[in-house]
Amino acid sequence: MNKSYCSAAFSHIYSNSSGHYKLCCYSYDHLSEVTKYNVDETPPFEFFLSDEMEDIRNGMLEGRHIPGCEKCYSIEDNGHQSPRQRRFNKRKMLTEVSEVELKLRIFGNHCNLSCYMCIPFNSSTRTKELKEMGIYEEISKGKNYEAAIKYNDWKSVEKNILDNIHLVEILHLTGGEPFLLPKHYDFLEKIPDKYAKNIILTYDTNLTVLEYKERSVFDYINKFKEIKLSVSCDHYGKKLEWIRYPIDYLQFEENIRTVKSRKDNIEIIAINVTTSILNVEDLYDIRSYYLDKFDIECKFYNVVNTPLYLNVKNHPQKNELYEKYKDDFAMDLVCRNLKMDTNLNEWNYAIDYINKLDKHRNTNYKDLWSYDRIGLIDVVNI
User: Exposed site from 153, 182, 242, 311, fewest CB < 10 Å?
Assistant: First the structure.
């Protein structure tokens, strides 16, 4: 297999939080021509079967350099395993469009949490809180995409997917919080049973609710081949409640038990940890907690870089943390970020931002994190 080929170009349809299509979530927008397409104007399979995508697929088969794929190229050149290798090419090599994984942000962004590191386009509650605090514009960088498409555009997207549903192997559902999005339940019901039985549903979920307006993911267990839950969770106990405000960690853990107790084809496949300055010290504790208590593995594939000031590169103990994690392959991405240059202005802004959140929420992060290690700006200014 050459250094250009990636099965994502043959089997992965993805749109980002602004509604633009990308080759995958790792692709560089500014280098790829496909980001001129967006969900509002172009239905997903019309994009995926476009001349531009066909040229990209042919280029990969020929081993040509593909604009937008530089992140994987760079990671591999530095001796690490890229998402191309680690994730997409673990599926069988394809030479034509088939076995499609559909991951689109088309059902809305309604979410009941305001995670301190969340991109506001991904959560209605996060957007509301930032606007109340008067800092929405500086965090959103002036963008104002509300993750909703017009009715006629939605009907076009829906029809396009249903017309090509025979090509779909995996339907990846995200939000917002997908379990709180009525439109996604309506869509699932429209998929004919003869195709649904061959489709795997995968969810990115905060698992805070299992039922909404008398509808539940459990209603679709017998309709689809499998249902797999990737649970977004960045700590446990009170630290989880601060990071993913206003989650109730006891209810969250009860929901884990409810899913784990079922004997049918629904399962939690992983706890997906987004690493930031507030949990990077505790990654081994987090992994042990969910493995020992619930027999669930943690994955550390996400590191906060939007907003960049919450990135682990700015942590004052970054060097000792690097030494702690450097021999653990699961922490490869975390370590690569720890090796990036520190920006003291970003660190100071991060502390200021966290204090603003505390004031707005009437919380106190210093009750949970050591003041000397997290809160003393002077520690990194000496």
Answer: 182
DSSP H or E stretch at residue 185: helix 182-190
Output the pTM of the full model: 0.90
Tell which of 288, 305, 322 closes a domain.
Answer: 305
User: What sign results for the dihedral spanned by CA atoms 362, 368, 370, 375?
Assistant: negative
- In 3D space, the residue among 4, 21, 3 whose CA is nearest the CA of residue 12 turns out to be 21
* Residue 190, pLDDT above cutoff 70: yes
Q: What is the dihedral of CA 301, 53, 168, 4, to 10 degrees?
A: -50
174 and 62 within one domain = no
What are the Cα distances from residue 226, in Å, to 91, 136, 232, 266?
17, 38, 19, 6
- How many domains does the chain contain in total? 2
Q: Tell me which amino acid residue 140 is.
A: S
Check pLDDT > 90 for residue 46: yes
Q: Which domain holds residue 236?
A: 102-305
